[in-house]
């Protein structure tokens, strides 16, 4: 049986859809634990007043302490051996848990089981490109190798199941990390235990959410996983694939911190660890050598152009919709 952990913080617009997707699962042997992390909107009231959710639902309330602490507290009271995570603004396909149960049955010695997922951005649903071959369907896979081939996380929080005893052994999510806490945990597990993947998107990663509530905004360096990779650096000395992955993540992930004067020196110290010879195709090679004032100007212009493009796209869609409605009204179609 599964224990489904849903951290909740100011997701009033989304949480009902997330919970409904859990209730709609074809596999029914699970409990749901919603951990409210001190929401200041009416998220908690929506959960308490939901109707038609025919499943075992428990609610935990805590002062705002961050998503890692919320998940850890949820797991602490979980009754079952298989822990599943779903954020309150994401959702599952109806057969997600059924597919996870089948994976556990077929690969019982693994520590983690996961599916591929969809990214939802600007209303567009895109299958994740997670670094495994197209002919790979399901089975054991090398997490580090897959991640080093693609910037998409091969294991994503809303599509993952973990053994509770492994979660406890690892100490769960690190509360000090506010960005990349999921990467940190998946990596620690994947470097020690076997991991299973079904290469079929069964979960929806909603990126059409305010950045502030998704946790992807700029954080202090002590809270960002890329400035806290010591554990993995020690293993990367003898693991070249892991070294390549850490370098890739530094090169692509540290750019916003390079642009900020307050974090530039720390960023440069991390970038000195990168083996640039193995980054031949990275456009960031020239960015890190370009004057910051020029980079900021370029990004500002690109942001304006992107905003204009989005508004024009929305206008065209609305105009098309109005045109279709008019054609129906006049009997043209």
Write the SSE topology.
Layout: E1 2-8, H1 15-23, E2 30-37, H2 43-48, E3 56-62, H3 67-76, E4 82-85, E5 91-92, H4 96-106, E6 112-121, E7 124-127, E8 138-140, H5 143-149, E9 160-163, H6 164-170, H7 181-190, E10 195-206, H8 211-214, H9 230-236, H10 240-253, H11 255-259, H12 261-271, H13 284-287, H14 292-329
Parallel strand pairs: 1-2, 1-4, 2-3, 6-10
Antiparallel strand pairs: 4-9, 5-10, 6-7, 6-9, 8-10
Helix pairs in contact: 5-10, 9-10
Tell me roughly what share of residues is in helical segments. 40-55%
Order of helices and strands: EHEHEHEEHEEEHEHHEHHHHHHH
The number of distinct structural domains comes to: 3
CATH homologous superfamily descriptor of the largest domain: Spore Coat Polysaccharide Biosynthesis Protein SpsA, Chain A
What would you call the shape? Answer: globular
- Distance, first to last CA: 51 Å
Class from helix and strand fractions: alpha/beta
The number of helical segments is 14
Largest sheet, in brief, is: 10 strands, mixed
Q: Mean pLDDT score, rounded?
A: 90
Secondary structure: number of strands: 10
Explain this structure to me?
By secondary structure, the chain is of the alpha/beta class. The protein folds into three domains: 2-212, Spore Coat Polysaccharide Biosynthesis Protein SpsA, Chain A, CATH 3.90.550.10; 221-287, no CATH class; 296-333. Helix content is 43%, strand content 18%. It has 14 helices and ten strands. It has helices at residues 15-23, 43-48, 67-76, 96-106, 143-149, 164-170, 181-190, 211-214, 230-236, 240-253, 255-259, 261-271, 284-287, 292-329; strands at 2-8, 30-37, 56-62, 82-85, 91-92, 112-121, 124-127, 138-140, 160-163, 195-206. Strands 1, 2, 3, 4, 5, 6, 7, 8, 9 and 10 form a ten-stranded mixed β-sheet that branches. Helix 1 (15-23) links the parallel strand 1 and strand 2. Helix 5 (143-149) crosses helix 10 (240-253) and helix 9 (230-236) packs across helix 10 (240-253). It is globular and about 60 Å long. The model is unreliable at 327-333 (pLDDT under 50).
